[in-house]
Amino acid sequence: MTEQSLPTYKANPVVSCRIEGEEDAILFNPDTDNTCILNGTGIAIWQFLTSARSEDEICEHLADQYDEAPDRESLLADTRAFLKRLEGEYLIREPENAT
Prior knowledge:
CATH topology: Outer Surface Protein A, domain 3
Shape: globular
Strand order of the largest sheet: 5-1-6
Strand content: 15-25%
C-alpha cells in the first residue's frame, strides 16, 4: 500500500467539542444526536483532526505529545480502534478526495 492510498480521517465539521475539566471532552453530532466522551488522548487526536490525517500521522503526533507513549504496534491498534469508533458514530469521516 502506498502512502497516497492510505485512508485519512478528518473531524466532521458539524460536530461540536466541549471541553469538560482538564482531561475530558464531549463530542456532539447534531445531525445524528450521537455523543462521545473523550479523555485527554482522545482530545489530542480530535484537535489534530482539523486537517485530514492518516493513522501513521496520528500515531506520530501522539508519540510526540506523550513521553510515555506505548510501543508503535499498541499505539496503532488503539488509534485504529478509536478512529473506527468515531467513524461509526459519524463524528469523523474520510475526506471526499481520499482514495
